[in-house]
Structure of DUF159 family protein:
Amino acid sequence: MSRLFAVVRTINEIAAHFGADEPPAISVPTETVEGSLGLVVIEKDGRCLLKSMPWGFPRHTREMRLHGVPPGRIGLVADLTNPMWEHRVVDPRYRCLIPITYFANPEGVPGHKTRAWFSVNDEPVVAWAGFCRNTSEFGPVFAGMTMTANELVRPFNDRMPVLLQESEWERWLHGAIQDVIEFQFREPIPSEQLSILHTGDRWQSGILPCDPSSRRRKTVLML
């Protein structure tokens, strides 16, 4: 999947949806790209807490270390066997839920890409299976797990978020590594349960799918 998503509900609505404690003084980001702030739900001492932190774990390469280059960011967990994830995916304390309403993929020809937004039908907020931890490089950060895309998403990208039903939250947050593997390699959400919103908004525009100024240029395809 691409590295752009948005949640278009108030902080109180998001907290209520996940049964989180009264939210602190944080705001809902207008959109989230790697390195910018996003929201996550964590469980601590039996309580659900809503947190704001940047998207993307620190990413080091041999060349970066050799030349003293600062770490980059990696916000998508596609390969559970990668050494950088081996401790995170096993330990439930590093798991979280990422509230999203839309995830985006670029559409069109290079140099003129626009935003195509995907959402779950009749679901104002859904949970994306995520990981989070405190890092020495960036402080608290999060990343989201991806899976093979369904037929609706595949023309845009061969990966999509691992989306969880409410009945699966507990298993994701507390399950064994076998559960994590099963979530990533199961069948994706059926295409008929998703909508795609085509827009004329340039990929770097920062315009959200709920922006009234661009709504007239959008069409919804319901499969």
Observations:
- Confidence is low (pLDDT under 50) at residues 212-223.
- The longest helix spans residues 177-185.
